[in-house]
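Entry 14. Structure prediction run on the chain below.
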Amino acid sequence: MKRAIAICVTVLAALPAAQAQVAADHSPKPVVMHSTPNAQAAETPVARVNGAVLTDRDLLREMYSIFPYARQHNGRFPKEMEAGIRNGAMQMIIFEELVYQEALRRRMAVGPLKLQKAEVEFRNQFATPDQYQEFVHAEFNGSQQLVKERIRRSLLIDALLESEVAAKSRISTAEAKAYYEKNPAAFQYPESFAFQTISVLPPEKPAPNQSNEDRKRAEAALRQAKATKTYEEFGILAEKISDDDYRVMMGDHRSVDRAKLAPNVVQALLKMQPGQVSDIIQVDQAYTIVRLNKHVLAGKVGFAAIQDKLKEKLQAQKSEALRAALNRELRRKAKVEIL
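Output returned:
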């Protein structure tokens, strides 16, 4: 229920009372206590769905849902993204209107107790009763009945999507296990090394004897690196004296696939134990010192370790497919006009 009420709040805050047509997408959103820019301006129809009019304010509300940062920039969207955001928002408001109309066609209803609970939860999202009344006055001309209808509408959309998408997209452990066993390559991981580096790099315009100078710097760095005892000590030293870009991350390269490392670096790492520091390794023109943090042999992630994330991934894929199929079916028998 909290999910549905969060939906209602966003819709109520963003749309005018008498002409609001579409519920927001079905994900939790914060209470929005202000109207969209130009909220009092005359609305322009942008689409009709079986005769129901969707307006530019409906569209703008959904565009904010897709790209909320626009609110912080005077309602402006990045020019290179605006057309895509607009198109995505248009498709969403049409889809949600179709879902709502289908719920009405099926004579779906919201029980009085469920609706009453939803109204209470909606009110409780406002800091004070005065804030709630101010909101209802600004967005619904003070009509509690219109507030109730907006909440009912969101609950109907939520109920139909639960029935046709969420309930049908749930993935069992057995289904996930079957996928895991049929796609073994997807769960294999390569041999990798987690390590830190301190590097001495030549300047852009090296002097004639630059290599000797760099070697001396590397040897001085090696003495200091060998004296470190912990990840933190080596990392702090890397921040101070390393020339490579990883110095800003304490020299940490995280986990790197063996195949992506220079052969002489791999050769050195294979001889080391976690916590050990290598001698100087020359890679092209750079002198590098490596601290091994972890060596992971190639293997396969066990099902027990991956099953929750795998179920979530497969469920998301199935949900997307079911949602797209529902959209196609509803559009097939609908009259949709983009104005």
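Confidence is low (pLDDT under 50) at residues 1-41.
Filed with the rest of this week's runs.
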